[in-house]
Structures are given as structure tokens and as C-alpha cells.
Amino acid sequence: MHYKIVEKSLFARIARMVLKSSNVAMVIGNKIHLSGVDKHTFERDEGWLAHELCHIRQFQEHGYFRFLWLYLKESYNVGYYNNKYEVEAREAGSKHKRHQAATKKETGNVKPSGLPLPSDVKKEV
Ligand SMILES: [Zn+2]
């Protein structure tokens, strides 16, 4: 899949300050904006990468502005955690876990941030 990574993104940094989180990955179109995590660390984390790539696919599938609208509407209706686009991305991210010998039942530790954009934080292990 075609995607671009923006390290030390200003957008992601603002999100990070709002969220008081140590890291944020935020997808806008085909770009993954990072703050608090570098490209290398992020791409090595297959589950996290798969989660954000799923958001990129959603942007492509629904169209840029239409997806932003749908995402916002979905969050408004059912909340960020149950937002179907987040549910789908979490599933995409947790598939990788199954290949690895992980025994945890948890579906990945990437959490939607609650912002009106597909942005996610990763809990420190
Ligand atoms: Zn997400």
C-alpha cells in the first residue's frame, strides 16, 4: 500500500499535547503523522502499522472528505471506541499478533484517542 510517514509532525504534536500522551500516530489521507515515536520504531511495530494502514485504506475506500465526515459521524453516534472504523483497524492490527506467539487475548494496545480524526495512541508496555 502506498503511504507516507511524516515524522515529528506538527499536527500529531498538537494532538499529543491535547491528549497528554507520549506518542500519537494520526492518519490524514495517505500520510501517517507521527509524534513521540520515530519511523523506525513505528514500522517495526507490525500491529500498530497495520492499524494505521487500515485507516489509509478507509480514506481511499470512502474518499478523503467523505471519510472524515463518516468517521466523525460514527464517533458522534457510538463513541470513539466503538467507532466501526476503529473496530476494523483494531482487528487489522491484532491479526499480526496471532501470527506471533502472543498468548494475550487483548486485541492490541493501540487505542483511539478520542479526537475527531483517526488518531491513535500506544500504551507504553
Ligand atoms: Zn485507529
Automatic annotation (TrEMBL):
Q: Where are the annotated segments for Disordered?
A: 91-125
Instruction: Say which species the protein is native to.
Output: Pontibacter fetidus
Please report the name of this protein according to its UniProt entry. Answer: DUF4157 domain-containing protein
**Where on the tree of life does the source sit, at the highest rank?**
Bacteria
